[in-house]
Amino acid sequence: MAFREYKIGARLFGVALGGSMLITLYFPSLDISSVGATEIGLKKMLTAGRSSGFSYEDPLLRGHGKPKAVTLNKDPKTGEDMDPVDAYVFEPGSPLPNGVTKPRILGAAVAELSVNKGRMSEANAKDGAVFLIKRGELNGKSYAYIEDATATKGWTYDAALRIAGDSNTRYIGTGKVIFVREQCWWCHTLLPEETQDWQAFGVPPRLGDFNGENPTALGSDRKAPDLLHVGSRNSSREWMMMHFFNPRLVQPHSIMPRFDYLWGDVDANGDKIDYAKWRTEYNEYAHGERIYPPEVPEYASDSEIRYLLDFVLNLK
Questions:
Q1: Domains with residue ranges and CATH for the chain
Q2: pTM of the predicted model, to two decimals?
Q3: Which of 11, 26, 62, 313 is deepest in the core (most CB within 10 A)?
Q4: What is the pLDDT of residues 262-283, one digit of tens each?
């Protein structure tokens, strides 16, 4: 009798667990796929790539295989001057976003414009691609859609990166991977609530902002400010540098941990960073033995902190 009751209880538990997964995972996916992706959703998808979490191409969350967001002021094919445009560059081998390989998740109208007008389906990961976000009309309504500039304009990934140069290249997708890896979502949300949060942190996202995003990184709790629009509230890269290197430099009572190790071994000049010396001098400053705190090292162009700052400052 006891064993039979155990089996019944185990089955009921399985049904309850399966039902909760349907409610929390499957049903929301139906809602998202039934709503057209917004321009914000398309930007998030094209900057983050296929996945910002654990994946077979990046199991250690190093940010490998992620696209680069660039600003172009010259035509990559002809070299002629043009009005600046934002483009999203996928080098050969970088997995394409789910919205590119599975257009249906973008919503019917956005998918139709992206495939028929933007020729998005012609892109392939083997050769690389350059994407743009454009606006078009369908049935009298305006929609943002994805254009494969490699197919429509002949822009190649290497030409786009060369025209942009390092100063106009942003590693937003790699930065999001580091945001997930360093568990920033444990204290910060990317989801203002529909309350007085509107006044403090900006308006909440819309459902169409999440099409093709994986993972959403909405956060698990809020022990610190919401960051969805932080790039609009504070666009100072210098302030962000100090805050990540040692939060107590800008907020004396901050409980945020240091992320100075994301600078790596050397600074922007190639000189070795002496972390022990810096912390000794900072402790002297904190105890009133120095008037000024030590200078935060300038980060190298390939350091992880640059990538993380690119992601955080892109949150607008």
A1: 39-171 (no CATH), 178-313 (1.10.760.10)
A2: 0.88
A3: 313
A4: 999 999 999 999 999 999 999 9
